[in-house]
Amino acid sequence: MDSFDYAIQMERDGYEFYAQAADSIQDRAAQNMLQELARDEKLHEKYIQQMKAGTQADIVTNVARGVKNVFEQLIATDSQFIDEDGSFTDILRRGIEIEHMSVKLYDGFAQKSSNPAEKEFWKKLLTVEEKHEKLLKITLEYIDKPNVILESGEFLFYDYDDVS
């Protein structure tokens, strides 16, 4: 299995994880966030397939904006994620692990690639995965300490620009 096939499988696994997790959660805000992440993983798969086919893939992600909207809705309604049984917390922790593995994988592919276009592609993709990891960490912190995160406003000042 080459790096592209391996990465495609990783993205498919990520999509399945987030899609199944969204279906398993009752909290609507948590569902929305997980669905945004699932959509992004599906897009990553498409970009990798394009790059494998020799087509320059233009990586764009909107997950940060989607998650920002979730947080803004929680703030506007003075709400929090509902995580009574800890299942959402477990999902976030597993998501952080998955994103971290993707970052390491894509970093390794970038370092090993002798093709400048591929090297740049893997670097852009790992940047997106780093953003996913950070958003999941911020969300986990928000569940643990919502007032501290809201006061710091870290997620409000996060770089929400598309990666391209």
- Give the amount of beta strand, in percent: under 5%
Radius of gyration: 16 Å
Mean pLDDT: 80
User: How many structural domains can be distinguished in the coordinates?
Assistant: 1
CATH architecture: Up-down Bundle
Tertiary shape: elongated
Helix content: over 70%
CATH class: Mainly Alpha
User: What is the tally of beta strands?
Assistant: 0
Largest sheet composition: none
Unreliable stretches: 156-164
Task: Describe this protein's structure.
With 164 residues, the chain is mainly α. The chain has a single domain (3-157), classed as Ferritin, CATH 1.20.1260. 75% of the residues lie in helices and 0% in strands. It has helices at residues 3-24, 28-52, 63-76, 87-112, 116-144, 146-152. Helix 1 (3-24) runs antiparallel to helix 2, helix 1 packs antiparallel against helix 4 and helix 2 packs antiparallel against helix 3 (63-76). The longest helix is centred in the C-terminal third of the chain and has 29 residues, at 116-144.
Topology:
Layout lengths: L2 H22 L3 H25 L10 H14 L10 H26 L3 H29 L1 H7 L12
Task: From the structure above, extract its key features.
Ferritin, about 75% helix, mainly alpha, about 160 residues, disordered C terminus, 6 helices
How would you sum up this structure in a few lines?
This protein has 164 residues and is mostly helical. It has helices at 3-24, 28-52, 63-76, 87-112, 116-144, 146-152. Helix content is 75%, strand content 0%.
